[in-house]
What we know:
This protein is of the alpha/beta class and 251 residues long. Helix content is 44%, strand content 14%. The longest helix has 21 residues, at 101-121. The model has no long low-confidence stretch (mean pLDDT 96). It binds nicotinamide-adenine-dinucleotide (NAD). Nicotinamide-adenine-dinucleotide binds at residues 13, 15-19, 37-39, 53-56, 87-90, 110, 136, 138, 180, 182-183, 185, 187-188.
Amino acid sequence: MEPAIPRYAVVTGAAGGIGQAIVREFTQAGYSVIATDIAEQPAGLRCSLYLQVDLARTVSDEAYAQDVFYQIKAHLGPQGLTTLINNAAIQILGSADSLTRDDWHKTLDVNLLAPFLWTQGLLPELERSRGSVVNISSIHARLTKKNFVAYATSKAALSGMTRSMAVDLGPRVRINAIEPAAIATDMLIAGFDDKSMLFRELEACHPLNRIGSTQEVASCALAMVQGMGEFLHGACISLDGGIGVRLFDPI
Ligand SMILES: NC(=O)c1ccc[n+]([C@@H]2O[C@H](COP(=O)([O-])OP(=O)(O)OC[C@H]3O[C@@H](n4cnc5c(N)ncnc54)[C@H](O)[C@@H]3O)[C@@H](O)[C@H]2O)c1
């Protein structure tokens, strides 16, 4: 039997709730995972390489970005990179009255420009393996609420960028996005610690009567890379328990 060709995945925001689930899912599926985050490697998170990297700095400092890409490329085999999962994001909340220039720059650097520049920086490696990119967007790309202007705008732009880059990059590299609604990360659950009624209400808003799990986002990402077929390109898939198709009105 021929030895299996190694497959590599790069995951940003790998120390976060969804990021850790994505690292586990791809590792279990046999990928060598290069996990990156500004935070230290979480205890117990298995991966092939962990790089502590500030995405905002990869936007502002080209030499720093080239060094990060060099470290990633040095770890890859000659077959290149199977997938890049642009998962990291920040959420700076504030109203249209209070958001500052700095809030906007930080949000757009991490949530939008970094996914673009990382895709561009790793393009030859992705192309070599006929690989694909998965951007973790959000339901806020389409539907939002008060005080989410900066975050929602960055996610709307990330979904739009996914579609534009699909036109630009096809047929060399596939690119798709996932738009999750509320996902039960440890942080989200902790926020409802003393508000279990509110958590029940949040669940009940969803036609499926629950919110999503980190595992469901990770499975969707893996399916986009290798399960749904090579015709999936430029898609922004809602992963939202149906909340995005539900009409809320007073009658
Ligand atoms: N949790 C949800 O309900 C939900 C819903 C929809 C979309 N999303 C999206 O899913 C993705 C992951 O979210 P999460 O809930 O796991 O959030 P999280 O905050 O747990 O994880 C985000 C990770 O990104 C990292 N990060 C932030 N700034 C960085 C920087 N400058 N450089 C490098 N790393 C940086 C953080 O350290 C963190 O580990 C995000 O894109 C988020 O917008 C989450």
